[in-house]
User: Fold Salicylate synthase from Actinomadura litoris.
Amino acid sequence: MARLAGSGLFDDYVVYERPDSYTFAGGTLGEVVLDAGTVRTRWPGVPAGSRPWSGHPADALREAFAAAPLPAWNAYGWIAFEFAASRPSGRLAHLVVPRAEVRVEGGRARVTASDPAEAEQIAKLLAGAEGPPPGAPSPVDVRVGAGAYKPRVAEAVADIEAGRYQKVIVSRRLDVPFPVDVVSTYVRGRGANTPARSFLLDLGGFQATGFSPEVLASVDAAGRVMTQPLAGTRAFGAGHDADERTRRELETDPKEIFEHAVSVRTSQDELSRVCEPGSVHVTGFMTVKERGSVQHLGSSVSGTLAPGRSAWDALTALFPGVTASGIPKPEAIEAITRLDEPRGLYAGAVLALSHDGALDSALVLRALYNEDGRAWLRAGAGIVLGSTPDREYEETCEKLSSIAPHVVPLP
Assistant:
């Protein structure tokens, strides 16, 4: 995947990893770009279009892809956290139908491309000798910014004590003080992480790579839908004895258990709005999931979409992820607009969707972002009654450590 991304064959690309499979989507055959108030589309054989939209942004995307003049398609891209804002601003989504697609499963690659010459170039690249190894990382110091972050946690706790909401995720941005090799960072970071999904993308000059700890929404062509809320966090990777101790803390801490339980209940309620009655259920409740430098309490919530419902309805119901926004969501999102600066892709989603109704989306956390020569990281902590600024700041450090040690500078 890194060899394809770094080859220079494609200006735009998305790499998306699911269990036992990688997909590389290169170039642009079709494109949908959603900004606040405007949706722009490009399709083969059709003049590029731009029109205003209103209502829910997911409906604007649904309509744009329904009009695609293609008998079959797969699309890849991202949606921003502000996709869920009551008054959205900035870029909300960027999705492409690729010119070329490479799927790797079981050690075998399958190449599909609209241009046979491009397919041949890709095949040669895949068959060729491996390039040089990725550069050496330059670890980014995560223990900065406490003075700005802790007062915002205290403000959120005061809001919760006043009954304004039950939970909110307060995040902090960490600027990287040097230009970054995003592709090499993906290789280094993936080798050190155990994500539910991973991704690497460059769309319109915006680059990002990350190691998502949880699935936001996965819908198959038959309408089976699953989400995987993770909430409750402790450090991981300090050695067997230390990891066992923090695991026991995680499984018995009332604050962590409450944070997880209310997140699972919210996911159940959200899926129940779009699924057949009685089909929503929880499996693997409060199982510990090891994700790089942290371990989480995790559960899976699944169901079957009701007749007339689609993957877009599931995405609308579940977005933004409860574990990256809060409870109740409307009040938490409003608080985030006060407590955080605009998030963009952080706590949004990278997704893959298809003409047959399937959709798979990763919650964007543990990621690096790069645009206009500036790179940054971001992490947050779930604030509930009983949270303390010191512990929540420490949690952001633990999460940032999933990627901060693996950032590779440009040579």
